[in-house]
Amino acid sequence: MTDTEARSAIESQFLSRTPASAAHAARASKVMPGGDTRAAGHHPPYQLTMKSGSGAHLIDLDGNRYIDVIGNFTSLIHGNAYGPILEAATTAAASGTNWPARNEYAVELAEELVQRVASVDEVRFTNSGSEATMLAVEIARVWTGREKMLMARYGYHGSMPQFECGTFGFEHGDTLLAEFGDLASFVDVLERHPGEIACIILEPVMGSSGVLAAPEGFLAGIIDAAHAAGALVIFDEVITLRLAQGGRQAAEGVRPDLTAMAKIIGGGFPVGAVGGRADLMELCNPFNPKVFHSGTFNGNPVTTAAGLVSIRHLTSDAISDMDRRTQHLEVRLTEEAAARGLPFASRREGSLLQLYMADDLPAASIHRTDAEQATQFHLACLNNGVFAAGRGLMALSTVLDDALVDEVIDRMAAAMDDLASH
Ligand code: PMP
Fold first, then answer.
1. What's the whole-model pTM score?
2. The CATH number of domain 3-77+315-421, selected from 3.30.430.20, 3.30.930.10, 3.90.1150.10, 3.40.50.300
């Protein structure tokens, strides 16, 4: 069989397994551009329509069952429809979904975050990680009286032009770029823009561009360099908060000025939060506001009740179990790929695993040299009942136990057979 025939066999199988999703994609395309409403889940020939999710499983419109190994892009840390979260959210919703006054859950969740994340003295809630990073940058701008922001090339901080230019690799407006892991490149930009840069915003582990950890000393060096230049440091822990109870900053022993959080702190509901030093956060104090910040659903009771359970059930034992299982997964997938002579490389940090269908690990980038192979492998995984991210990211949840992880390995090995069958 030729390469093209093998590929089309994978795609043909996908088409024949998912006719209801295909029909629904056509219907969706009439009212939503490309049938979609979110870039991250998009993949050819069409994304699936899911009917339900429960625990470690998703079920699509055609009744196909998938083991969910991405958990809504790292946010469902306890899987789908986790019982204790459902109970907390429905109890909260039954008493009213939101009102323009304080609720008790939001304060409890703020207290929990302050207690867990050492650099966080106070918290403001938002409705997404994107809003959280935007607010953090705004606080830095007002505090410093400067406009420019420095981020890592290919970093991801949300879906706004001021960040997305950097995600795609170019500078624009007030957004400046340096190279992740290369402290000298950040120092160079700081020196070329004296008195202009309000903040450095950084993922402590690059997420979207390939689960790339900061080299030893890099984060501490960034904090020193920024402070010497009169700039603040924002850590974007939207993904990495899952890696340790106090976030990646705790594991690395460093303290940013501000931290953006989201995903797991909402228990599966829309959420974001900025936390940080009290003197900085006080700029948002409505008794004496320097930063105007509002939002109809900020800190709503349903999200914060769910988030509280999500965070409280994320014990350090649960984190180390996920990490151990993800390590096992990485080792076994590497062996299975090698047994079939498939190009394969991976990066792992804790419960985050990034796969490449290439022999060498690429540099941090959203651009892929293995895009075609990765797309085919993703479809083959779907055909074999494993739901990962199109770009090869996996994020384990606490409900994926040892037996389920072994089942994932078997199913992904079968997907590798499909890929290698030519
Ligand atoms: N920062 C990082 C590191 C992210 O991965 C994301 C989302 N994947 C965001 C910010 C934006 O969060 P949201 O999608 O909730 O707006």
1. 0.97
2. 3.90.1150.10
Residue 1's pLDDT is 53
Q: Please say whether the structural domain 83-312 has been given the CATH code 3.40.640.10.
A: yes
On whether the CB atoms of residues 185 and 364 are closer than 8 A, the answer is no
Residues 6+ away with beta carbon under 8 Å from 211: 205, 347, 348, 349, 352, 353, 354, 393
Atom of ligand 1 nearest to the CA of 240: 3
Residue 262 and residue 286 in contact, taking contact as beta carbons nearer than 8 Å: no
Nearest residue by C-alpha to atom 7 in ligand 1: 158
Residue among 261, 270, 412 at smallest CA distance from 342:
412
Helix axes 402-420, 3-17, angle to 10 degrees: 130
How do residues 364-418 score in pLDDT, each as one tens digit? 787 888 989 999 999 999 999 999 998 899 999 999 999 999 999 999 999 999 9
The whole-number average pLDDT for the span 206-232 is 97
Q: Check residue 8 and give its pLDDT.
A: 85
Q: What is the CA radius of gyration of the chain?
A: 22
Tokens representing 28 are 């969706």
pLDDT tens, position by position, 320-346 = 999 999 999 999 999 999 999 999 999
Q: Is the CB of 133 under 6 A from ligand 1?
A: yes
Ligand 1: distance of its center to the CA of 406 in Å? 29
Number of Cβ within a 10 Å radius of residue 23: 14
Helical ranges in 238-290 per DSSP H: 248-252, 278-281
